[in-house]
Amino acid sequence: MRPLFRVVLIAAVLVLPGCRQSDGDLPAPNADAQGEIRDISRDILSIASGSDPEAPKNLTDDLLRYTMDKRTNANDAVMDLARQTSEALAGRTVPEQAAQQLAHHFWVAVTARELSERQIETLQSDVQALVGSVGVPEGQASSVAAQVGAVQQLATDRTRRWYEVF
Fold this sequence. Notes:
This protein is an all-alpha fold. The chain has one domain (about 30-165). It has seven helices and no strands. The protein has helices at about 1-15, 30-50, 55-65, 70-90, 95-110, 115-135, 140-155. Helix 4 packs antiparallel against helix 7. The longest helix has 19 residues, at about 30-50. The two termini are about 25 Å apart. Mean pLDDT is about 85; it is low at about 15-20.
């Protein structure tokens, strides 16, 4: 009985690591998407500086563009993301490069359809670090990052396969 147990154990050790969820393709922004990411970046900068009272609404509208037609479940999560971001960044000094990176992360969150759980966690971690780097308290930065994950979970087409449970 012992040799059979060893064989089963060795087989499990070799097979189970291959069952993790594979990474999906990250969307690559084309020329139109680059312009939309710049719009999102300008919204973020306007929110931070307080120069445009319409900036939170503009951010919401720019992000909803990707979920409005097909993903009604994600709409509320996108609106919450825009609201939390507006509250977190209002009155902060946000460098243009940070705004561009954050805009790109938000764009990935609303457009990617096949991200793995690991990729979503990385996206959340990147957002939290970026938002925290401009002086947002850790709790607020964590909340914005969690909302990015919620948006991506609702925007995705990817379902977990039975063999990825292990």
